[in-house]
């Protein structure tokens, strides 16, 4: 390794990988004693890094680095912690963890086994150095920020860093190891933006962004103006074509408006005419109505007397008629009762005769009591057997109900297991539909396979505890979790041909090993590992068919991977060193341990466990099998109970039949014993009834005679009344004769009486004619009233008026200028309709469109004027901003090209940097193009990720960054292991250029990280070389004595010449 020059700084001692002899979870101290030497002399640029301190960060326990103001070369073997310093710079200056390409959470940068870490960076400022501290909490994955030991927020830190023009996300300024390859992948546009941000004036990138925004809005305005102008011209031309039609339309409309107004007035005129006629008829009707009333009042006394006499006559006739009908009805009832009694007497006599005949034919009853007693005993015996049989049937029913309840309970438990299995299948269907369809096909076509075929592993695996599902899902890839397992290669080919080739389903398949791995014992007993917190191997966490378990043991060694707890994670370093396990799990992490092929060092990595998705549903298949067997046993018992019930029902049916027969025999014997006595009782009863009916006889002739007698009495009374009437008539006649005598004596009175009668008849006739005339007038009034209402309704409809509204003033004004008679209105209507009919071929929609277009033309003209003013304003802004942006940018690119070409020329190669664009107005297409040529026989080619080799890309990247160095306004630049992949010649040339460029006066700070260097390289006195030593045998940080090391080195140097 090259030896630095005399003024090269000695690096600050770096901590070993061993844990410091203190509690790793203790708080980060706010103030530390630095063991670094005094800062090297030299001018620091505003924002340069003066000091970097780390505690519990990646490989370091405690470390403090003091870089120089110019080139800082950090050298150390791979894995010692060079890139850790780069990570500290990025994260300490509020950079994103993902930018480093290592991890996306800041907690992963804290040293393993520690709960907190710290980064402290001191930046040079003329007004006083800025100390930024970041404390990282692993558990919360959060950071606490401090500026000059005072608590602050990340946003304030970012503002302070940006004020010093530090851009850790700009590859032109900060190029970590994992991002070196991405620099060559930057597009020309991205490279221009990165260069503007890195070395351009602060306003250059802002001007560029403004130009892009202005240009985009300018394009939008140009397009909008063009479209609106074209559209406006089209509408103007279209309106010119339709202008004459519109004028003719409005002339026709004037005639139609007059017609409309005439038609509106005509119903009102018609209504007024009818209304006047109605008023005349109404007056005539009222006069006739008064005459009728007077005539009726004169006839009222005579009419009332006639009505009274008629009423008396009707009442008397009604009473006589009602009395006669009542007597006739009573006679009819008596006749019906007599007929009914005779019929019942006849029926009773016939029944008595039948009973007497039956009594004669009945045999004398023998002694039947012994037979009845014997049958009674047999009947009691049969009933006892029947009760016993029914008791057995009830017991069987109870037993069947118990078994059915037990069967339902078992079925419910099996359904619960099936529901859990369906949940797993639903997850498979939602995530991998092709695999789910293949499962359905397999279940219907198992007969096509010779050996065992198993559904996807995620369905066959059954977790004993679903809390442990995350270990299995993190250990077995998802492609294998959804894979079908076959025992035969031939069966797998048949399956793939049907499913993958024919049905076009994307499925995965695996073959189980021929020799079983399922029962192989682990290399280490679990009892040995329990002291570290391990409680099981992966294989013991779940159940699976033997071929599936054998495949997982063979492929993923699940019988060799233990699972631990949080206690395992707390002592993970001891577990890794002592157990030599290759893979292991803690409560929330997976650890993979590898041994380096070159250095034989143990390297471990850990990842957080993902949440389980598929195996969280647990199905106890053994319990389900026991339930199915139990269900079969219950079904067998149910069948036995059913067969016993059938036999008992047959037996009970036979006993029922025997019981019925015995009861029938007993009934027949009892009927024979009591039949004669019953017949005698019936005959006696019927004879008594017959006697009563004969006594209750009714003499119809007597009743008829009585009714006739009463009718005769009524007729006699009527005759007496008639006689009395006759006598009264005779009396009346004599009185009448006396009256005639009186009349004869007074002829004058009689003649007056006749005259009055004649007048009465005439008055009656006049009354009838007057009433008829009144009716006709009233009907005419009603008809005219209805017509008035209809005309009023029609007139209001024509004028669009409601029943409560009055005629508007505009109608009244218009009606005054129009004729007032129907004939004049009809004549004018005919004339106007004839004129309006002359205007044909006119479309109202054309006028509507013409009017809308006229309004739109005015609106568009105004909008177009505003748009043009706005466009001119944007063009003026673009011209001003472009001048302020493009000229400085061209000068800047020209300077970069001059430096870049000079560097390449010194290497006997060629390189150019230019500002590239296809269209001068497309500001978002501007970019920096790098073209290089490493051989004289080739042409200049653009730097791309594919055309040049890795070493050539590294050389080009390094030289471009060097070209930016003297122009750069950023306080420091970091380049991590960019010399990897360069050939020795290019590496030497590049190194010389880096030293010459970075060690000039007034240049920014430069960090160059490399794991190795060529021999006999040139060094500058302004360089600062930092050696990174790290390993298990390093001294503790508090035991370093840098001055003693320097004195010892001088003594060795001074004693060598004497030897």
Automatic annotation (TrEMBL):
<protein>
    <recommendedName>
        <fullName>Structural maintenance of chromosomes protein 5</fullName>
    </recommendedName>
</protein>
<keyword id="KW-0175">Coiled coil</keyword>
<dbReference type="GO" id="GO:0000724">
    <property type="term" value="P:double-strand break repair via homologous recombination"/>
</dbReference>
<dbReference type="InterPro" id="IPR003395">
    <property type="entry name" value="RecF/RecN/SMC_N"/>
</dbReference>
<comment type="subunit">
    <text>Forms a heterodimer with smc6. Component of the SMC5-SMC6 complex which consists at least of smc5, smc6, nsmce2, nsmce1 and nsmce4a.</text>
</comment>
<keyword id="KW-0547">Nucleotide-binding</keyword>
<feature type="coiled-coil region">
    <location>
        <begin position="232"/>
        <end position="420"/>
    </location>
</feature>
<keyword id="KW-0158">Chromosome</keyword>
<feature type="coiled-coil region">
    <location>
        <begin position="624"/>
        <end position="682"/>
    </location>
</feature>
<feature type="coiled-coil region">
    <location>
        <begin position="850"/>
        <end position="884"/>
    </location>
</feature>
<dbReference type="GO" id="GO:0030915">
    <property type="term" value="C:Smc5-Smc6 complex"/>
</dbReference>
<dbReference type="Pfam" id="PF02463">
    <property type="entry name" value="SMC_N"/>
</dbReference>
<keyword id="KW-0067">ATP-binding</keyword>
<feature type="domain" description="RecF/RecN/SMC N-terminal">
    <location>
        <begin position="49"/>
        <end position="1010"/>
    </location>
</feature>
<feature type="compositionally biased region" description="Polar residues">
    <location>
        <begin position="1"/>
        <end position="13"/>
    </location>
</feature>
<keyword id="KW-0539">Nucleus</keyword>
<comment type="similarity">
    <text>Belongs to the SMC family. SMC5 subfamily.</text>
</comment>
<dbReference type="InterPro" id="IPR027417">
    <property type="entry name" value="P-loop_NTPase"/>
</dbReference>
<dbReference type="GO" id="GO:0031981">
    <property type="term" value="C:nuclear lumen"/>
</dbReference>
<dbReference type="GO" id="GO:0003697">
    <property type="term" value="F:single-stranded DNA binding"/>
</dbReference>
<dbReference type="GO" id="GO:0005524">
    <property type="term" value="F:ATP binding"/>
</dbReference>
<feature type="region of interest" description="Disordered">
    <location>
        <begin position="1"/>
        <end position="40"/>
    </location>
</feature>
